[in-house]
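Worked Example 4.2. Consider the chain below.
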Amino acid sequence: MKRDPNRLRRWDAVIRRIPTDREWIGAEVGVWVGATARRVLAQRPKVTWLMIDAWTAPHPKSTYALSPDTIAKNEQPYFENCFHKTLTAVRSFGARAVIHRLWSQEAVAEIEDGSLDCAFVDAEHTYEGVTRDIALWLPKVKPGGWIGGHDYRAPRFPGVQRAVDEAFGTIESDIDRTWFYYIGGKI
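Applying the procedure from the previous section yields the following C-alpha cells:
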C-alpha cells in the first residue's frame, strides 16, 4: 500500500505545537527510524531533540513482545537497521540531535525534572508501557509545555487510549491519532 504524500502525519501535529521564535527542548520516546525527529529538526531550527529508544528486541515474554505491535515481533538485526536509519536521518543536525540508546526507564534518569518543553511518547503501544512512560516523562516537562503521543484511538492498541484517558481525563486529540496534554495551560 502506497502512502499519500499529502496526508498529514504525527510529525505535523508535533511541529505545529513547537514555536519558531525561541529555543525548545523536546524528547521523543520511541524513535523507530527517526522520521519524526528528522522533520522536527528540519522545520524548527531552534529545537534540540532528544531521541530515546533502546533499538533492542524486547524480551520475548515482555508485555511489548506479547502485544499486537508488529514491530515488537522483530529480531535484533531489524532494530540495528532502524538505529542506523535514525543516525542517517538526523546526522546533518549535529548537536541538536541527541540520541539516548536506552530503554525509556533508563534514559529518564539522565534528564532533569522540568527541563523539557515537550515529550512525545510513541514507544511501547501497551497499556502498561504508555502508563509507565507517562509517569516517567511527565515530571520532565516544565509548566507551559506538553506531553503527547501517537496511536490514540488506534483499534490495534486500545491500551494507549486507556492509559492516556486514565492519566489525564481530557486531552487534545489531533491528526494521525495523536494526543496532547498541556502542563499548566495551553502554550
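The CA atoms of residues 73 and 114 lie 35 Å apart. The chain has one domain: 10-182. Compare this with Example 4.1 before moving on.
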